[in-house]
Amino acid sequence: MFGSSIVGFVRDQASGDLTQLPGTAGCVGPDGHPGCESARGLSQYTASMAISPDGRQLYMATASSGGDRRSTEGTILAFSRDPDTGILTQLPGPAGCLVTDGREGCEAARALGNWPTQLPELALSRDGSSLYAAFLTGGTGLSGGVSVFRRDPANGALAQLPGDEGCISGRGIQGCRSGRGLDVPTGVTVSPDGRNVYVTAFNSASIAAFARRPSGALRQLETVVGVQHALALSSDGSYGYVADDEGVTVIARNAPWVTILTGERCAGRGLRVVVHISVEGALRRAVVRVDGRRLTSRARRRFAVTVPVRRLGRRSHRLSVLAVDRRGRKSVRSLQVDGCRRA
């Protein structure tokens, strides 16, 4: 018999020992699974679980391998949780599960993935008002995205946001908004302050960053490249950490954002460069370099500098600006600039 299941334990707070709950309260499984409570919407593999911040609900994402197309679509199940005993009870009626075709009396939902043994991956906002599911889709090529659900704080029921606010897809799933950097998602994370959602993607080798609106809807921001695996945020939300085979990458969140504008060609004394820095709080310094050699250092959010003709010559150069805020968070923006060519 194939099917996902949830096993419930009581934890001894003194020793840490686990004891399975007695009888059918000790597990939830597919219909007919011996000794367990039955649940609707279960597929073959458990992809992710998330517990609401108030501890009153548990959400479970499942996926399947093999079989017909229906069996390879992701599902999301919703359970109420007794805070005293830990016993799970699936929410009644359509609120108990989300599937793409509404089978087994579940609520119909869009963009839950259709690739075997993979996602959806779940993340709840800290205020408990939103749930996000990163999903993987197959077909002409592997892609993916993130689906957006509103959570009812009274009963824990999930409702997908209407229209294209309900999902963002990397390859144009019908009814979803288009997004960037979402090919083969590996995880989804909500920032502790609830302002942002981040989706890491393996094939895109990136973190897709989104601003989160009060409704839970997402607006895509810039994408961080060079990262493939799931992101973990510090408790204060200032830094993110991504582990891979080569070590741990540390990423500053809300670091200064650098914009560089240059003239089309050298004029007069050299190439004019305008630097604009967006930063939360105070800026400590901004350092402009040409080919790694310092040209100037300022403590202003906006300034202009001229790269002398003698520094540029005729060949191309790497122009970079390092910005550091008062908390020590750094960002670097670089671009290639041509040398000065006299008429």
Q: What would you say about this model in short?
A:
With 343 residues, the chain is mainly beta. Helices cover 1% and strands 48% of the residues.
The rounded distance between the terminal residues' Cα atoms is: 79 Å
Q: Name the CATH class of the largest domain.
A: Mainly Beta
What structural category arises from helix and sheet content?
Answer: mainly beta
What best-fitting shape do the alpha-carbon axes yield? elongated
Number of domains: 2
Low-confidence segments, ≥5 residues, pLDDT <50? 67-71
- CATH architecture of the largest domain, by name, is 7 Propeller
Main sheet summary: 6 strands, mixed
Question: Using only CA atoms, what is the Rg?
Answer: 25 Å
Task: Please indicate the percent range of residues in DSSP E strands (runs of 2 or more).
Answer: over 45%
Number of strands: 31
Helix content: under 10%
State the helix count: 1
Task: Estimate the mean pLDDT confidence.
Answer: 86
- CATH level 3 topology of the largest domain: Methylamine Dehydrogenase, Chain H
What does this structure look like?
The protein is mainly beta and 343 residues long. The chain has two domains: 247 residues, Methylamine Dehydrogenase, Chain H (7 Propeller), CATH 2.130.10; 81 residues, Immunoglobulins (Immunoglobulin-like, Sandwich), CATH 2.60.40.10. The protein has one helix and 31 strands. Strands 6, 7, 8, 9, 10 and 11 form a six-stranded mixed beta sheet that branches. Strands 12, 13, 14, 15, 16 and 17 form a six-stranded mixed beta sheet that branches. A four-stranded antiparallel beta sheet has the order 18-19-20-21, with no helix packed on it. The chain is elongated. It starts with 5 loop residues before the first strand and ends in a 6-residue tail after the last strand.
